[in-house]
Design goal:
Elements (H helix, E strand, L loop, with lengths): L1 H6 L1 H20 L5 H25 L8 H23 L1 H30 L7 H19 L5 H37 L1
Helix pairs in contact: 2-3, 2-7, 3-4, 3-5, 4-5, 5-6, 6-7
Length: about 190
């Protein structure tokens, strides 16, 4: 399993880069409209969900499917589609619903990331990066749920900061996995 994860380090790198770009866009344009916010969230969540499903289906080299990853991916795709649909059909309700969907998605993702970090703690060093990413996701979700009426400007800035932090953590983990993969490859020869 470790070789498979290390071989896919670049997926985390791409995810991190996309998250950072979206975070910068949200911070640079905090007065973003609800529809644009919903679509940005939908695009990131859908891409992230598709990637998770692909990784989960590919799973182990022996054909074992990672069902937790597939489930997380499907939930992310549903969250993205829901956000985009509400922005088009019910813009008044969309903000509140979008905030709840974003918060729930972040909390679920955080729980899964912490569980994965605990599972991988004996397999890789610096698994705390994944655990910290999970904790940040849970805190982000809790903050949104605690203050849903804070206004779209504050939420856009908070989402931008979250996306930047998530992107940095994903890039850090991807580089660590790449280094570990190179180390495993060198040890095999």
């Amino acid at each position: 399993m470790l070789r498979v994860i290390c071989g896919r380090w670049w997926v985390l790198l791409l995810r991190g880069i996309v998250a950072i770009l979206l975070g910068i866009a949200m911070i640079a344009q905090p007065a973003i409209t609800l529809v644009a916010l919903a679509y940005m969230f939908a695009v990131f969540t859908a891409i992230d969900g598709v990637v998770a499903v692909i990784i989960g289906i590919r799973g182990e080299s022996d054909g074992t499917v990672w069902w937790t990853m597939v489930l997380l991916g499907v939930l992310a795709i549903i969250a993205g589609i829901t956000a985009a649909t509400l922005a088009l059909t019910r813009p008044g309700l969309a903000l509140y619903t979008l905030l709840v969907v974003i918060a729930a998605s972040a909390i679920v993702r955080g729980v899964f990331e912490i569980a994965a970090a605990i599972r991988l703690r004996k397999e890789i060093d610096d698994e705390w990066i994944l655990g910290l990413s999970g904790l940040l996701s849970i805190l982000f979700g809790a903050l949104i749920l605690a203050r849903p009426g804070a206004g779209i400007l504050a939420i856009a800035l908070l989402i931008g900061a979250y996306m930047l932090a998530l992107g940095v953590m994903a890039i850090a983990l991807s580089l660590r996995l790449r280094w570990l993969g190179n180390k495993l490859e060198a040890a095999a020869h």
